Amino acid sequence: MNPLIQQQVTHGSEILRNGGVMAFPTETVYGLGARYDDPKAIQKIYDLKHRPADNPLIVHINDRNDLSSLVEFPIDSRLQYLMDRFWPGPLTVLLPKSALVPEVVTAGLPTIAIRFPAHEITRDLIDQVGVPLVAPSANPSGKPSATHHDHIAYYFEREVFCIEAGFTSVGLESTVVGIDKGQVTIFRSGGITQENLSCSLEEEVPLFTSREYTPSPGMKYRHYAPEGQVILIDSIAELPAVERSEKRGVIASEEFFAEVSLQSDVQKISLGSRDNLADISGQVYHALYLADYYQLEVIFVERFRREGLGQAIMDKFDKASQEK
Ligand code: TXA
Ligand code: MG
């Protein structure tokens, strides 16, 4: 790790040890962290993000032994299998919560979300603090998640210390899995695909779809939305429907832009090649951030196929396009 980053990790760990809040990279998105055992520090996270109090946080560990103070055993064997297979990495698992964990972490729920991140900086930071860290994505509630330290400076105006490690690699949040009606179920699509999970377990792992109740509270809120109106499109033919006077932009693949010639006043934001969904994932939040940065009023977004990472990519764009 370069010495400058090393210094920032040490500084960040001091802030956290002393009950503060700071931002750090993970392989998925930047997180806004606090010690998991410090309710006052955790409350600062909710305040900074304007996060609804019923939306629980993910606890980040750097050692499987940390589970002993966080969850009730035994762990479901299928979830254990997924943890062995995908940790460290972008997988969050919902497990029965131990009574030792403060209620504010789980917003009163009987389960706790645990993630073992793969990023060297995150792991080093947890190590230096010496206890697991809670960390939601480092964005104000409802806004696109942060995938670069510049996004954090933009959102929190230097109010929050951030380790400056450039772009994250995955670019989408971790996949959240748990048990619903006895079945391993995906509560949030993310960096690990439904196909990956189903294939590993040799059984279909469904996406949680019930509208009757929401065991994962975060999913019911509007998310990832820039200020302007987001409109999903399949083809360029849908573009001219908009008033000329509005500041317009298009978020799409290289291939999409190659097929059309856009008017010069339309801001182009390329996500990379459609053939490489991992690259596209990495650009989703930056593209939505740029939409705000350019103050776009109408943003057309190419619709991708809901396969592999396309599932998580479209989840984010769908949510970004929901009515305010
Ligand atoms: O990749 C990630 O997971 C990032 C990085 C920073 O690790 N973190 C992240 O946290 O995305 P956040 O707070 O933005 O999203 C956590 C999601 C929310 O939808 C929340 O409702 C859900 O996980 N969640 C947390 N605890 C839960 C629980 N006990 N039961 C159900 N859902 C839970
Ligand atoms: Mg979030």
Characterization of this structure:
With 324 residues, this protein is of the alpha/beta class. Helices cover 31% and strands 17% of the residues. The chain contains ten helices and twelve strands. It has helices at residues 3-17, 39-49, 77-86, 103-106, 120-129, 149-156, 194-201, 254-259, 277-293, 310-320; strands at residues 22-24, 31-35, 58-60, 91-96, 111-115, 133-134, 175-180, 183-188, 229-233, 248-252, 267-270, 298-302. The strands form two sheets. Strands 1-2-6-3-5-4-7-8 form an eight-stranded mixed beta sheet, with helices on both faces. A four-stranded parallel beta sheet has the order 9-12-10-11. Strand 10, helix 8 and strand 11 (267-270) form a beta-alpha-beta unit. Helix 1 (3-17) packs across helix 5 (120-129). Bound molecules: threonylcarbamoyladenylate and magnesium ion (MG). Magnesium ion binds at residues 136-137, 145.
